[in-house]
Design goal:
By secondary structure, the chain is mainly alpha-helical. It has two domains: 59 residues, no CATH class; 118 residues, no CATH class. Helix content is 82%, strand content 0%. Helix 4 runs antiparallel to helix 5 and helix 6 runs antiparallel to helix 7. The radius of gyration is 20 Å and the shape is elongated.
């Protein structure tokens, strides 16, 4: 008997980005069709079909969701979480500045830790308030980092991967932290 489960990452991604009213119906239809296709085709062909359908269903579904009231609530939740993130960064930088001599090298070393911690916490808070808010928050974090890179906020020379790390890991920590903390909570590791 063949394994008929669709790509796990694809399902997780769709659960994350599809709006609530459409999530179960679209994902259910895709999984059902994938199961039928894998019986008559190779796993690669069925997976390719699954990904193409997932990518095709996203734009109209997301556009429809953007026009809804839920989208506005998610955006405002993301704005609140973004303000929380910036406040956490500000407080952490002030505390670090009083405890450690705040030279440029110290800042370059500690900035990723502070940034990723603040983005993870704000992503978790946003997800607890409103599930769809994490996507908007991740986009806001990405835009902020892109502007900071363009404006050359970091005054000392850093390698390309340092800035690229902020650009990729920041939004990822916003999206992944709620899932990670949710799993830890389910297993009883976090109270």
């Amino acid at each position: 008997m063949r394994n008929t489960s669709p790509p796990v990452f694809g399902c997780w991604f769709l659960e994350l980005v599809l709006p609530g009213p459409y999530r179960e119906a679209i994902l259910g239809d895709l999984i059902e069709e994938y199961s039928l296709r894998i019986e008559s085709a190779s796993r690669f062909t069925a997976s390719r079909w699954f990904w193409s359908q997932a990518c095709r269903s996203l734009p109209p579904t997301v556009w429809s969701a953007l026009r809804s009231r839920d989208c506005l609530i998610s955006m405002s939740t993301a704005m609140g979480a973004y303000v929380l993130m910036r406040m956490l960064e500000f407080v952490a930088n002030r505390v670090i500045g009083t405890l450690v001599s705040a030279g440029p090298t110290t800042h370059v070393v500690l900035a990723p830790i502070v940034f990723l911690t603040a983005t993870a916490i704000s992503g978790y808070v946003a997800a607890r308030i409103r599930r769809g808010a994490t996507i908007f928050l991740a986009l806001m974090v990405m835009a902020t980092v892109a502007v900071a890179i363009y404006e050359k906020v970091c005054t000392i020379p850093v390698p390309w991967w340092y800035e690229f790390g902020f650009l990729t890991l920041g939004p990822l920590s916003v999206i992944i932290a709620p899932k990670l903390f949710g799993r830890l909570k389910q297993h009883g590791a976090v109270t």
